[in-house]
From TrEMBL:
Provenance organism: Origma solitaria
PANTHER family: HEME-BINDING PROTEIN-RELATED, SOUL PROTEIN
UniProt region (Disordered), positions on chain: 1-28
InterPro entries with a match to the protein in the record: Reg_factor_effector_dom_sf, SOUL_heme-bd
GO molecular function: heme binding
Protein name (database record): HEBP2 protein
A Pfam family recorded for this sequence: SOUL
Family, similarity comment: Belongs to the HEBP family.
């Protein structure tokens, strides 16, 4: 056997040290991110388990604004007053979504836990074994009584599948996640910022209902909250969507 030269020995030893250092930094980053999410979770009365460390890290690394795919829509109308945008009327096409039904005591708990389950699906826990990519917004379907004065606990958190996966969506490993095809829909959308809870959602529903010329054209008990920033962010960018009756 040929003797290993001191130079090649140094290189092989040096590269293994570099790999160890990279792994250590990787582990430290994972711990830091997990700890951050666990703190945020506690604020929403949600436990973030250790097995979320890898999906959180993967999502954080891939969360470049340029790489997020926005759900495509056709703008039909913009309603403004004194330069302020009151709402937009949009058409969304037929599409497949990964959906999970949640029913926690508080809305914030439902969206945090639902989002975590969807994160696992996006981050390789699917039949393709691949990272699927982030699409925005992540949406939550909420239900109210006919009078629009109270919200039910049951919500559906949903992730729009990227264009390249629409024909053949990867199967989720989590049996709670269902792939659904939603029909083409016209929505009336109004933007708002901050946390989303029962109070802020009911306030936004009543506000948009008062602004619309013909609210009777929309469903009276089903609405969508569209989130453009993750549930951990404080000053979130959200929209409330009214759905036009089919």
């Amino acid at each position: 056997l040929a003797e290993e030269s001191p130079d090649s020995a140094y290189h092989s030893h040096g590269s293994s040290l570099e790999e160890e250092a990279a792994e250590r930094m990787d582990d430290e980053e994972q711990e830091r991110l997990l700890s951050y999410w666990q703190n945020v979770g506690r604020g929403h009365q949600v436990d973030v388990p250790r097995d979320m460390a890898e999906p959180i890290q993967q999502l954080t690394r891939n969360n470049n604004p340029q790489e997020r795919q926005t759900i495509p829509f056709t703008l039909i109308q913009r309603k403004e007053k004194l330069g302020d945008l009151l709402y937009e009327k949009r058409q969304y096409g037929k599409a497949k979504w990964a959906c999970i039904k949640m029913k926690e005591k508080q809305y914030e708990q439902s969206i945090c836990l639902g989002f975590m389950k969807l994160m696992r699906y996006i981050c390789e826990q699917n039949s393709s074994g691949l990272y699927l990519g982030i699409t925005i917004p992540i949406v939550t379907i909420v239900h109210t009584n006919e009078a629009q004065s109270a919200m039910s606990q049951a919500v559906t958190v949903a992730y729009y599948l990227p264009e390249v996966l629409q024909d053949e969506p990867p199967h989720p490993f989590d049996s709670d996640i269902i792939i659904e095809e939603w029909p083409a829909t016209i929505v009336y959308s109004r933007s708002f910022r901050g946390i989303t809870n029962e109070d802020s959602i009911m306030r936004e529903i009543n506000l948009l209902a008062a602004i619309l010329e013909s609210p009777e054209l929309c469903l009276r008990d089903t609405f969508i909250i569209a989130g453009y920033t993750n549930p951990a962010a404080a000053n979130r960018h959200n929209e409330i969507w009214f759905l036009q009756r089919p």
